Amino acid sequence: MRVIVIFCSLFGLFSELLAAGNELLVSKQLIYVFSSGVEEHDFRAGNWSRLAEVSELEFAVLLFDRGKTELIDLPEFAAELASPYFFDKSTDYAALFNPINGQVSIAGRGEEVEEILNARLAGSLTTDVDESTWGKIKELFQ
Asked: How far is CA 9 from the centre of its chain?
């Protein structure tokens, strides 16, 4: 009996440590409220996950389809951020924020937030171009 209690206690502690570790790994979350059926919104909803994979920002993506979600169903933090935009089916809304302290980094229409994140991603990409390549380019323009 004692062995089972100790095992359960250790397992509970281990799972809490894993959960805390996962929160630290993904320090930002992106919520996206959109209307499915709008081609641009559907494309952007699929694009957020791809952007999160290649970005150095490391953020989790939470998608909320207005057709399948009520405002009351959203987590409290998401409802607070998205409530002014939730009922306007013609627009989409995205917000990148830190769930630990509630600080919003970027918020606005989905297109605007996507452009900002793409610009940040493009700015963080580096390429290796060796000197011989630059020499070849220089020869082409002479």
From this structure: 34
Between strands 28-34 and 59-65, the pairing is parallel
Q: What residues have CB less than 8 Å from 1, skipping those under 6 apart?
A: none
pTM over 0.90: no
Both tokens of 84, joined, read 């002014």
Residue-wise pLDDT for 72-129, tens only, equals 888 787 788 888 888 888 889 999 988 888 888 888 899 999 999 888 877 654 555 5
Residue 58, Ramachandran bin (φ over 0: left; ψ between -120 and 50: alpha; else beta): left
Reference 86, options 103, 105, 67; nearest CA is 67
